[in-house]
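Exam revision sheet. Question 4 asks you to relate a sequence to its structure. Input first:
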Amino acid sequence: MIADVSKSNKIVVEKSTVPVKTAEAIEKILSHNSKGINYQILSNPEFLAEGTAIEDLFKPDRVLIGGRDTPDGQKAIKALKDVYAHWVPEDRIICTNLWSAELSKLAANAFLAQRISSVNAMSALCEATGADVSQVSHAVGKDTRIGPKFLNSSVGFGGSCFQKDILNLVYICECNGLPEVANYWKQVIKVNDYQKNRFVNRVVSSMFNTISGKKIAILGFAFKKDTGDTRETPAIDVCKGLLGDKARLSIYDPQVTEDQIQRDLSMNKFDWDHPIHLQPMSPTSVKQVGIAWDAYEATKDAHGICILTEWDEFKTLDYQKIFNNMQKPAFVFDGRNIVNVEKLREIGFIVYSIGKPLDSWLKDMPAVA
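Answer key, structure tokens:
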């Protein structure tokens, strides 16, 4: 399409996260349809995070521009660099070859996801030993070589990028005869799946090894606060796991619509490790899902609460009021470590917070396999 309408030399900038060597493919397509026009392809991947995208655009950690190491290629790189130089300090604009720019985006997301899986793996060990994952993360993050960011334990990572980009990396490694490297990155996703399964198992085992017919309130469905995005949100797998044990769910999220939640829970999931399609929710399971308009409605007459998104409003709820309107014993399963555990226990809740020392109730009822 670009070739069809171009009447003069063009610089084509690849912005999306794409498989390595996509720029080369674009280059070949355009050169074979060039009609004498010169095209330069640049890779300029985005490093924007949902919820902070505008801030990330105005004050980026770095801007990455990849292009050909030829006079025309370097001229194209300079043209794009001059655009960013209007608001980005020059030392934050990194110029590389095409393949380095494309691979850097995949590598960055893989490293971030790896940090989350690493701290989540530690959270399981913390629970087993009585350590506190928040204290461990704080101590580890004080090492300037490691740093404190992306060390919060949770029910798992989600979003449209992490899993997709890691699988992209896995595919590239396998295509280039590097199965050991591919397996290394696969493990990041396997630990993420393990964390979600571990959370569901903890819910089931804590509530007398059965949640059949019990109402469980789900607070938060988006993959992170301040966004309505549900792509790859851990809430999907957690909800499907609870529905598989015949729980009744009441779901509240301040941004995600009822239609979106129903679509996400009805969707087939492709298991990349075993290439078969897992079954969507049955019509019976759909009837077990209700959508609430606020947290108090969602938790009324519930046996347990699962906090799956770190929305700020969940930190300031009137938990005494919630406790009074719940079935007893009343459980809180904090998948984001945002509640005051001691305060909730004083109210009367049995509280499970990922990676935190277990109370006596949970110690007596170890998680099922």
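Marking note for examiners. Confidence is low (pLDDT under 50) at residues 274-279.
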